[in-house]
Amino acid sequence: MNLIEKLSKGLSKTRERMAATFATVFGGGAEAARELELMEEYLLLADVGPVATAKILAAAAENRRTVGLLPAVRNELLRLLSFNVRDDKKVKIFAGVNGTGKTTTVGKLAHFFRQQGKNVFVIGADTFRAAADQQLEEWCRRTNTPVFAGKPGSDPASVVFDGLHSNLARTADYVLCDTAGRLHVNKNLMQELAKLVRVAGKACPDQIDVFLTLDAGTGQNALAQVDMFSQWVQPTGLVLTKLDGTAKGGIAVALAQKFSIPIRYVGLGEGPDDLVPFSPEAYVDALLPQVKNDNRRH
Predict the structure, then answer these.
(1) Distance, CA of 105 to CA of 243 (rounded, Å)
(2) Which of 259, 251, 257 is nearest to 235 (CA)?
(3) Topology of domain 3-83+287-293, per CATH?
(4) Rg, C-alpha atoms of the chain
(5) How far apart are CA 40 and CA 235, in angstroms?
(6) For each of the chain's 298 residues, which pLDDT tens digit applies?
């Protein structure tokens, strides 16, 4: 299954939720003004959010006469979601609230890089959650990836420091660092995360990515999480997990519009191959599956 097919399958619940509105907009011959209203409803149902929806429709309204409403919406979605990103930084630190799938994401990304022939090393800095190291070690065992796990109760920043100065880290193409889940409103835990990122930055200057994992099913609450984490660290990428289990797949658009942080990966299932690089084109075409067939003039 290729990327487009995976994203299309992953967004099936979102499309099902919006199917009736989609059919009304583009199958019922509605008046132009009514079509805009229905498209607004369509985007809001997908959890694109009111601010992003308003901007998308304003841009689409200006261009619909030349290309049609749906292609105009597609073009604006692509503009919001497209970033010039390079995956060349060696150390990738995963942060996020509890239950967003950080450890699973680290395991899947290790598998992804190993499939590309890359040398991967994993650091387990979640020293508080019970059995966190066992879960991470099991993922690494499956992918034959070496892992350095901190002892329970140890300082996470010290674990990262020691891991990054190990021989395995020096020879790796990528180092993936798992951290403890933390509520974004807990100041002490956020200070701890900021310290961990600073220590990593001193050990590997200009080689740090901070990826914030977000459960796609949380919808608009994901905006609050990114806002708070951004006050303590500077995320360079977002990972949307559990996209296949939600009808709120449009949250990717709301996040990109508000924060201008690229979405780097999306989780589309439980298997090791179900974490895929984010493609704006594949995502938009999965969200608006009929866009290429809409050639009507307005």
Answers:
(1) 13
(2) 259
(3) Four Helix Bundle (Hemerythrin (Met), subunit A) (1.20.120)
(4) 20
(5) 30
(6) 666 677 777 777 777 766 666 666 666 555 667 778 888 888 888 889 999 999 999 998 888 888 888 889 999 999 999 998 888 899 999 999 998 999 999 999 999 999 999 999 999 999 887 666 788 899 999 989 999 998 888 999 999 999 999 999 999 999 999 998 888 677 889 999 999 999 999 999 999 999 999 999 888 899 999 999 999 999 999 999 998 887 778 899 999 999 999 999 999 888 888 899 999 998 888 887 554 444 444 4
Q: Are 98 and 186 in contact (CB under 8 A)?
A: no
Asked whether 213 and 94 are in contact (CB, 8 A), the reply is yes
CA distances from 86 to 83, 89, 195, 277 (A): 10, 8, 25, 12
User: 108 — phi, psi (to 5°)?
Assistant: -70, -35
**Can you state the angle between helices 12-27 and 280-287, rounded to 10 degrees?**
60
| DSSP label at residue 298 | -
282 in the Ramachandran plot: left (φ > 0), alpha (ψ -120 to 50) or beta?
Answer: alpha
Tell whether the torsion through CA atoms of 196, 197, 200 and 201 is positive or negative.
negative
Q: Write down the pTM of the prediction.
A: 0.89
Provide the strand spans (E) within the chain.
91-95, 120-125, 147-149, 174-179, 208-215, 237-241, 263-267, 275-277
Tokens at residue 223, please? 């905006």
Q: What does the domain layout of the chain look like in residue ranges? A: 3-83+287-293, 91-283
Residue with tokens 């299954």: 1
Pick the CATH number of 91-283 from 3.40.50.300, 1.20.810.10, 3.40.50.80, 3.40.50.2020: 3.40.50.300
The widest CA-to-CA distance across the chain, in whole angstroms, is 66
**φ and ψ at residue 155, rounded to 5 degrees:** -70, 120
Residue 245 is given by DSSP the state: G
